[in-house]
Amino acid sequence: MRSGFGAFRQAECAGLREDLPLHGLDVLEPAEAERMERHLRRCAACRAEAARLRDLGALLPVALEPCEPPPDVLIDVLRRVRAARAPGARHAVARWLGAIAAALVLALLAAPRSAIPLIWTYEDSPDIAVINLFAAIDSPLSARYEYRTEPPMRLDQSVGRIYFNTVTGRWRLVVHGLPRPPRGSHYVLTTESENGTEPLGVLERWEWGVATLEGNAAYDLTKTQRLSLELVSSTASIRLLEADAH
Amino acid sequence: MATPAAPRTSKRDVRTLPDEKGDLLRRMAAGEEEALVALYARTASLVHAVAVRILGNREEAGDVTAEVFWRLWTRAGSFDPGHCSALAWILTVARRMALDRRRSLLRRGSAVERFRAELEGEPAEGGEDAMVSRVEAAAVLARLSERDRSLLESAYFEGLSGNDIALRDRLPLGTVKSRMRAALARLRLSMGTVKR
């Protein structure tokens, strides 16, 4: 014989089961939804059915044409994540990069120590500082080359430069010969300074094999100790270029 | 003693979409940024599509997408795999936040027309898994009648409750609810047919 509580539960299930599909669609009125939630907390059978219905409801958005968000969205999120962390933010980045499945690292060692970090030369105008990101194979500098991606990408001719206007603070990163990122991936420029690590932006403009990224004076580039360009893909991030202040 | 039946899973149902078991969410809850980046790479195009569909405005949708991933980062620990799949949970968060933003914009009276703005630019691709599943999901939905589909979409993307739809369509609430239940039952049936 069914216990009094069991009979009550059965009656409650029967009374609410009709509304379970509506709960899965999130369209119950607040009072109805609250009653349903209370029931689901104590009824495993209805909870399992509700889970199946919620997955069914997810078909509606899944059927939508995927739509890539603006490239700055990921950067905004990462900025907030890092800003919310304790001062040990650098370690978080180290962990992130520690999970790299493939890596291409260009270690640039030749720059002499100077008041301005990184490798600065002045070209075109005394107001424009140029940070050179050297090519891997052709570079006379010491370079470490590890490269495992599928399908393979040739990056040995890549040359990048940052044009930094010391008056306005605006800068522009130009990378030559870098292939377009695979679907679902993007290139992220990151800097490290005494204040921690900060993503500066995503390379998003491609013209004739040249990728550019423009930034403003919101970030003081002269305080940068390390600059890196990473390919952030669906499963890993890949550090492509790295320039250290010496 | 009978053991409860395990939830039916299929290699091709919605649970096979990105982060089907919530592994990335668990790693995010542990503070791993790379898990956040990986989850973003796999689901951002879908989350953004939901936001664009609900808001009809890419700029607002971009803001909401960023807010969604921030919330996923801060609330990843509250994901309960027994409640629904990780993707369904992520999309529920996205939908609720987009609907909240939509209501907020409507309250501010910031031009309903903005919600109807045409989508701009080319749609981007999701991961291969998502694309296959999207085709299947679209096939499942295509088997519904226009009325059923419209009913479900009104509820999901416009955030209309049964009462709202009853008022809009001048139908008794009971009729709206029974139509929704029937539409979902047909959706489930259609899903079984497509998966066979």
Describe the structure.
The complex is a heterodimer of chains A (246) and B (196). Chain A has helices spanning 4-17, 20-24, 30-42, 44-57, 59-62, 72-84, 89-98, and strands spanning 107-108, 120-122, 128-133, 159-165, 171-176, 186-193, 196-203, 205-207, 210-215, 226-232, 237-244. Chain A is of the alpha+beta class. In chain A, the strands form 2 sheets. Chain A has a 6-stranded antiparallel beta sheet, with no helix packed on it. In chain A, strands 1-11-10-6-7 form a 5-stranded mixed beta sheet. In chain A, strand 8 (205-207) and strand 9 (210-215) form a beta hairpin. In chain A, helix 3 (30-42) packs across helix 4. Mean pLDDT of chain A is 60; it is low at 88-158. Chain B has helices spanning 23-29, 33-55, 58-75, 86-107, 128-142, 146-158, 162-169, 173-195. Chain B is mainly alpha-helical and 196 residues long. In chain B, helix 2 (33-55) runs antiparallel to helix 3 (58-75), helix 2 (33-55) packs across helix 4 (86-107) and helix 6 (146-158) packs across helix 8. At the A-B interface, helix 2, helix 4, helix 5, helix 6 and helix 7 of A face helix 2, helix 3, helix 4, helix 5 and helix 6 of B.
Quick summary:
The complex is a heterodimer of chains A (246) and B (196). Chain A is α+β, with helices and mostly antiparallel strands and 246 residues long.
SSE layout:
The complex is a heterodimer of chains A (246) and B (196).
Chain A (H helix, E strand, L loop, with lengths): L3 H14 L2 H5 L5 H13 L1 H14 L1 H4 L9 H13 L4 H10 L8 E2 L11 E3 L5 E6 L25 E7 L5 E6 L9 E8 L2 E8 L1 E3 L2 E6 L10 E7 L4 E8 L2
Parallel strand pairs in A: 1-11
Antiparallel strand pairs in A: 2-3, 3-4, 4-5, 5-9, 6-7, 6-10, 8-9, 10-11
Helix pairs in contact in A: 3-4
Chain B lengths: L22 H7 L3 H23 L2 H18 L10 H22 L20 H15 L3 H13 L3 H8 L3 H23 L1
